[in-house]
Amino acid sequence: MKHNTNETDDQADELRRIFEELESSVETAEPAEEEEKQHKEDEIDLLNLPPRKEIHGQNSKRTKFRMNGSLMRLTTVVIFLLLILAGVYYVWQDEIITFFIS
């Protein structure tokens, strides 16, 4: 049984050593990769820029409001009814007020 325990200890030690080596290599590689990414982001290739029209055309998206026929008719009827109600109120103002008070 001692032989089996030593073998397990040897495997564990070997695995710990491999894991530590991998861990140290990953730690040294990460800062270099981050620096490369930052450097690439900072660089702008002036010869391969898109045309100005494309860039500014994409950013100026405006909300367009379109009225179809049925919406136009509804708007016209509502405005017409409001004008009629305003005229009725102007002509019969006193009678309307006394009707609602009493």
Protein model, in words:
The protein is mainly alpha-helical and 102 residues long. Helix content is 79%, strand content 0%. The chain contains four helices and no strands. It has helices at residues 2-42, 52-59, 69-91, 93-101. The N and C termini lie far apart (108 Å).
List the keywords.
elongated, 0% strand, 102 residues, mainly alpha
Distance between the termini: 108 Å
Can you count the beta strands? 0
Strand content: under 5%
Task: Write down the secondary-structure element order.
Answer: HHHH
Give the helix/strand class: mainly alpha
Low-confidence stretches: none
Largest sheet: none
Let me know the average pLDDT: 79
CA radius of gyration is 40 Å
Backbone shape = elongated
Share of helix, binned: over 70%
Q: Total helix count?
A: 4
Give me the secondary-structure topology.
Elements: H1 2-42, H2 52-59, H3 69-91, H4 93-101
Short description:
With 102 residues, this protein is mainly alpha-helical. Helix content is 79%, strand content 0%.
